[in-house]
Each structure stands twice: as C-alpha cells, then as structure tokens.
Amino acid sequence: VDTTAYMGYEMPPALVARNTVGRCTAFCHIAAHVFQRTSMSHEISQIVVFVFLGLLESILYIIGIGQGDCTGMKWATLAWSLTPGALLPIFICVQHRFDYGDEKLMLKREVNSGIYYSSIWFATTAKSTIAAFFKLFTYTLVIFIFNPLMQGLGRQFVANLMFGLWWVGFAQFISLLCADQITATMALLITPLFERWLSGNWCYDFINTDAALVCPIHGMRGLLFFPGHPVFKMLWINELDECPSYVNSFGIVNTTNYHYQVNGNRETATGTHAGEPYEVNTYFAGSGSAWAANFLYVLWLNIFIRLLGLVCLALMASSTTHWIADKLARISYMMRCCGLCAWRAYSPPVEELNPPFKATAKTRRSSDSSNPARRSSDSSNPEAGEAACAPSPAPSPAPSPAPAFCSDCKAGEVRGGGGSYSAVVV
C-alpha cells in the first residue's frame, strides 16, 4: 500500500528527531557563513587606509629624506619612534566595532535560536584575526621602509600584530558590552588617548624631570590591562639587540632602561673622582629571554580581552542566565542551611493575593456557571435562584406578646402571656 499518497494528496514524511550538530561542525558552518558575508572590496579599502596611516606616522622621516637629511636616528628620539602611535588603535577600533553586527537584537536572536554562541565567537575571532593580520602587516611594512630603525621586519611585525589584535578584541568587547553604539563609539575614540598615558608611552618627554605624579619611575604598567607598555619594551629590546652592548651606557638609553624597567641585568661600577667616591649603575635591556617574557605577557592580555567578549556573548543566551540563576539559588539555599543570610517567610500583600473587586451581574453569572450544584438547583427552581441571589433582610427584634384580657380576671388584673400584672383601672 502506498502510504505517501491519500486521495491524490501527498502525505508528509514521518516525524524524526532533529540531529543536533556538534560544536566543531557548528563552528565550520558559522565560519563559512561569516566569511561569505565578507566584502573583499570593503576589506581591501580598509587595508589601503593603513597604508596612508603608515605614511602619516612616517611623515617626519619622509620630509627628512626629501630634504637630503641622512643623519639617521637620534638617541633622544629613539623612544618616541618606538612608541605605538595613538592613531593606530583608533583606526582599528573604528573598523572592528561592528564585527558582531550593528544590530544586537539580531545577534540575541541568533544566540537564542539554538546556535552555539561559542561557534559565533570562534568564527568572528578567526575572521577578525585574519583581517587584522593583513592590515598590520601593511602598516608595519610602510613603517619599516620609511623609519630608520635597525631591527628586522619580522620581530617588529610581531609586536605591532600583538598590539593591534588586542585593540581588535577591545573593540569587540566594548561593542558587545554597550547597548548604545554611540556610547561604544565614543569610548573607543577616547580610550586610546588615555592608554598612552596609562602605559607610560608619553613619559619619554618627562624622563629626568620632576613629573613623578604624571610618570612615576618604572612607568605605568597600563593597569595590567592595556598592552602599550610591554609592546614598547618588545620594540625597545629589538632595537638594542642590533646595537653594541656599550650603547646601554649612553645616558638617555640607560635612563630609559631604568625608567621603563626593561628586563635585563644591572652592572655597578665604583670609583673616585676629584677625591669623591661615586657609583654608576648601568641597566641593560636584555635580549631574547626579556623579549619572550613581554611577548607572553601581551599574548595573555590578548587571550583575556577575547574571553571578556566571549562572556558578554554568553550572557546574551537565556540558557546562561538560567544556569546562573539556578546556581545562585543553590548557593543561597546552602547559606540558609548554614545559618547565613537566612530568608524570613515572605508573603505578598493581601491586596495582591485577594484583590478587591465589585461584584456585578457578569461576575455573579460567572461564579454561578463555575458552581454546577448551584446552577442545577437554580435551573429547577427559578424563584429559588432569584431568592438566593437576593440579599437577605436584616433580622428584626421579636415582638413582645400582646396582653390577653380574660373574663375571670380579678378587678384591676391584666393577664398576659408571661404572667399576671396589677394595674390601676381608671
């Protein structure tokens, strides 16, 4: 018997259980969807922006080359030339603030429609990392061509890549954290300016001055959150590795090593000059181990900022909020059993439990319809039903018994229901 057709109509197939794909398979599908939505012309135009950004930050060296000034880099300006620029994070934040889309409502629907939020996070992170790789390579290549630095292209590119990827993750985190995108954009434009101060990257102008409050000794560590300080030390170590070791004895170099607390050794020399003893400390910038320590630190900062974005994305899922509410309820119950934060008996207000309402004919009919015994008795005896619905009269006091006069009463005696009374007969 053909069960797929009945009276000329096709029957739907039997219902089967939905196959839920795994996390890795979901990541492949979401990644393919994210990359398919990418506009190549838009990405190329953004890469071209970084070409002009690199030229803008190298404008002073380009002018010097055009004027025939080939004196090279001055030691006093070496720290300034190795400091990450303020325009680079601003351009990165502006370009990557919409990596998760400009409409958060659609993102919440995707997260709560059965799509793994971790798959969305993995796919967006992969796409933004690849895009930032080409942008920062272009920027580093332009800087490498026009800036008279001695370090190689590879290690300089790694430092700039770690710096740029952190700002990509920061832009994604702020865009997920702020519901209002205008507020997010303002925060992304202002934060890079304060980051240069918090990371100590403006402190090279205040070395050997009394500006201890603005730039304390050993610099400001970026509140252990911003990457500017370790990235500068990576670039600084790269540059001094290409120079002889005696360069660390130069005054400005030695002071920079001490002020920024660049990891390395310290050598102390003592002597006597004009009959007065003296002591000189020489701070060395270190080599490969110091560079690797700062690289691992920046790598951890990148992982941390990406995890913050994952947390914001997970909180959009209702399953996560339900899980958190369940765990909080369990913790509060355990604390109550231990005698901590014990909850008292709670009851809502009386008016919420039994709200007052005025009885009308409609409410009376609905109450009658909900009581079948009363409805059957009212239908069999309509007058009784009407009498039951009518309000009962107030009870009246019992009348006193009327006195009864009898023929055998004595003169002046009145006999009533409760006994005899004597009265004066007029």
Question: What do these coordinates show?
Answer:
By secondary structure, the protein is mainly alpha-helical. 56% of the residues lie in helices and 6% in strands. It is built from 17 helices and 6 strands. The strands form 3 sheets. It has a two-stranded antiparallel sheet with strand order 1-2. It has a two-stranded antiparallel sheet with strand order 3-4. Strand 5 and strand 6 form a beta hairpin. Helix 2 runs parallel beside helix 7, helix 8 packs across helix 9 and helix 16 crosses helix 17. The longest helix is centred in the N-terminal third of the chain and has 30 residues. It is globular and about 115 Å long. The termini are far apart. The C terminus is likely disordered.
Features:
disordered C terminus; two-stranded antiparallel ribbon; 426 residues; mainly alpha; 17 helices
How much of the residues is beta strand, in percent? Answer: 5-15%
Helix amount: 55-70%
Class inferred from helices and paired strands = mainly alpha
* Biggest sheet details: 2 strands, antiparallel
The oligomeric state of the chains shown is single chain
What Rg, in angstroms, do the CA atoms define?
A: 44 Å
Query: Count the helices. How many?
Result: 17
The parts where pLDDT drops under 50 for at least 5 residues are 382-390, 400-405, 416-426
Give a quick precis of the structure.
The chain is mainly alpha-helical and 426 residues long. The protein has helices at 23-36, 40-57, 59-66, 78-82, 87-96, 104-111, 117-146, 153-177, 181-198, 228-241, 251-259, 288-314, 318-337, 350-353, 361-370, 372-380, 382-389, and strands spanning 5-6, 9-10, 266-273, 276-283, 413-415, 420-422.
